[in-house]
Amino acid sequence: MRTVYSGIYLIVLLFVLSACQKYQDAISGNNQIPIPAILPVPIERPVSYTQEIRPIIESKCLSCHGCFDAPCQLKMENAEGLLRGAFRESIYGGVRTEAMPPTRLGIDELTVSGWRERGFHSVLQSGDAQSEPLIAGMISLAKQYPFPPNSKIPDSIKLGINHKNQCISGEKFSDYARDYPYGGMPFAVTGLSDQEYALLAGWVKQGAVITDEPVTLTGGEKKILQQWEAFFNRDDNRGKLVARWLYEHLFMATLYFPDLDGELRFFELVRSSTPPGRDVIPISTVFPNDDPEQPFFYRIRPIVGNILHKRRMPYPLSHAKQRRINELFFAHEWPVGELPGYSYAERVNPFATFAAIPAYARYRFMLDDAEYYVRNVIHGPVCRGQIATDVIRDRFWVLFQNPESDPFITNNAYRHQAVPLLEMPGQNDDLLTMGEEWFRYLNHHNDYQAQRRSQYVLQYPGGASLAHLWDGDGRNKDALLTVTRHYDSASVTRGLIGDIPQTLWLMDYPLLERTYYILVVNYNVFGNVAHQLLTRLYFDLIRNSSEHNFLRLIPDGQRTDILHDWYQHSGKLKFGIFYEKIDDVLPSAERFTTDDPKQELVSRILQRFESVNVMADDPINRCGPVNCVRSDQPLWIQKADQALSAIAARPAADLAGINRLPEVTFVRVKHDQDKRTVYTLLRDRAHSNVAFILGEELRYQPEKDRLTVYPGITGSYPNFIFDVPASDIEEFVSLLGIAKKEEHFEHIVNTWGVRRTHPQFWEILHDITGWQKEREPHIAGIFDINRYENF
């Protein structure tokens, strides 16, 4: 018997060893030891970090090492992140039963020694004499084992955000290099040029010295900073309460001063233990509405380093903005008693915390910059959020309710009744009480919805009308927005883009404010599974409520059928349990003459709000039989418009090539030597419903996918780039539409595709950034390529 067991043990051992070897071969990307290329000689003359090294890091490293999901938390947007180094634990490391300590640069630790105590290890210095700094080993490894130009990365090398990072220190690099010869940096992409490598290697060899780069403010910047810091730090209770509300709505902003000429510089608003006039020492709290537990001052400091495209939340601090704040919040007297504290109850219900501030002022202030607030929600403090994006459609339009038609704004008695029901989950992350917490918030939400429905019956017995929608005061183009989902990220753009979407949202003040608080103010990217789950579940209710609010405009008796089209199959299970029953009895004030009320209503919206619709005429996606071009563009761009319109807004059942495309594809169209334009191809994935945060593949309807062609750039995470000469655009579009088989699509990629290994990969990527910077300097930034596909 012992012999039998020994034989079984030997077989199992051999099987395991064989499996391990095969796995090792797979992750190494090669079954043979590759022959290393000869490395360029490191430069011996003194190398400047500011003038020579930082530009290389920003152009070749930051695209992967900028957001919270940067490999091994090595963030390179500024010198502080580079000096801090890497960490073994991922922020997106799976399900957490306990929240992890925040690791935000410039907030949670201010010294390198502090980060070392937290477990971060250096990538610039070696730990012993026998090893070289990690960054030197990584760039050498990539330089020794390059990929053939514009070749597909071997499938055995795992890419994307689910790639398992090996967060090693310099002392263990030799083992890593042996096991992962193709794991150098930049990872699985066109690497450093010989000159770039020589500079970086020489700099590291010289000690990787990073000189201090103090930010020198201009006289104009100092003056404006003093004015705004004095404004935020008023001594009276009204000023203090308004400042707190403003801080909670601006803490994520990339602030700028439009009244100043010169270089565009961005700033951020923080709570500091030091008063104006002294160095800023930020108070580190998990949430912006946590108790600071000490006296504090609102301070404005420059944002140091490069700001990724994803992190851009531009917000102007101008003289006009300060006048607007004074007009809304201080022009009229309103009573304020004792200031609210920072208890749990006061953090989960901003409607109660800031009840003293007129609701009209709060809502109007948010509407003035509605795109900024929705951008916060969509871009937010997270870098990946498939569980959150699972509960929104791939493209939908967002409209806002007129303040004068929002009972929460106009009816004091109703507002006082509603406020206690508007508290939100998330800050209590106790796993044991999660179920109890959820049902409490769910019941409050449903009670509020019932109360709200009754109020609308009383206040508007004739039903909702388009007059109840905010028209941007006839000039504000933030009134109409388009949100597009890109699997685990999303983006927002002004205007109603694309063909008429399946769903639309109509947001009133409670919906807009709750969305902002649940996904921005009260959201913790470092939180545990209970926090994450409660946040997502509540956001699901907000989406459903926004859709219901829009459907009030549809004729009674037809809303249920439309809603059932939005919530097919399993989506119907949540009605009567979690979702409110839609009011299909109260009439609509709109009058309809066709059998397709949604189409008729949206066409009416496009006509009524044309003056504030950036995309009032979207000829590429909403073109008729002719004139599918932008008439104000040069002829070569009109030719590209016309060609791309042939694949826009048509189902994949008619255009098989759509299913070959990823979520976000940039297309650079070049004309002559110095003229180019950029389009974004957005794949709108169809689903039977988006009522659940898991099991998306079970609800996917690929034959109904459509393509939205955006004439410009949207999305922070390009999945692929095509570089197409203007003379080839018609052929490119024609082949893309009929690319039924993989080899058909591969031909397109071979002809116009910019693979990760393309010799001009970085040049083309950064030229697209430059193109956007020429047109939209406030939101143009370096794109994140962690999701770049391997076609």
What features would you describe in this structure?
The chain has helices spanning 2-28, 49-60, 79-84, 112-117, 134-144, 173-179, 194-205, 219-232, 237-250, 319-330, 344-348, 350-353, 359-368, 370-379, 386-389, 407-410, 412-418, 434-459, 509-521, 529-551, 559-566, 597-608, 635-645, 729-737, 742-752, 761-775; strands at 254-256, 267-272, 297-302, 314-316, 395-400, 481-485, 490-494, 504-507, 664-671, 675-684, 706-710, 720-725. It has 791 residues and is an alpha/beta fold. The relative contact order is 0.09. The chain is 37% helix and 8% strand. The chain has 5 domains: 1-32; 49-205, no CATH class; 214-342, no CATH class; 378-616, no CATH class; 635-775, no CATH class. The strands form 4 sheets. A 4-stranded mixed sheet has the order 7-6-5-8. A hairpin with a 3-residue loop joins β9 (664-671) and β10. The chain has 26 helices and 12 strands.
List the helices and strands and how they pair.
Layout: H1 2-28, H2 49-60, H3 79-84, H4 112-117, H5 134-144, H6 173-179, H7 194-205, H8 219-232, H9 237-250, E1 254-256, E2 267-272, E3 297-302, E4 314-316, H10 319-330, H11 344-348, H12 350-353, H13 359-368, H14 370-379, H15 386-389, E5 395-400, H16 407-410, H17 412-418, H18 434-459, E6 481-485, E7 490-494, E8 504-507, H19 509-521, H20 529-551, H21 559-566, H22 597-608, H23 635-645, E9 664-671, E10 675-684, E11 706-710, E12 720-725, H24 729-737, H25 742-752, H26 761-775
Parallel strand pairs: 1-4, 5-8, 9-12
Antiparallel strand pairs: 2-3, 5-6, 6-7, 9-10, 10-11
Helix pairs in contact: 2-7, 5-7, 10-13, 14-19, 18-20, 19-20, 23-24
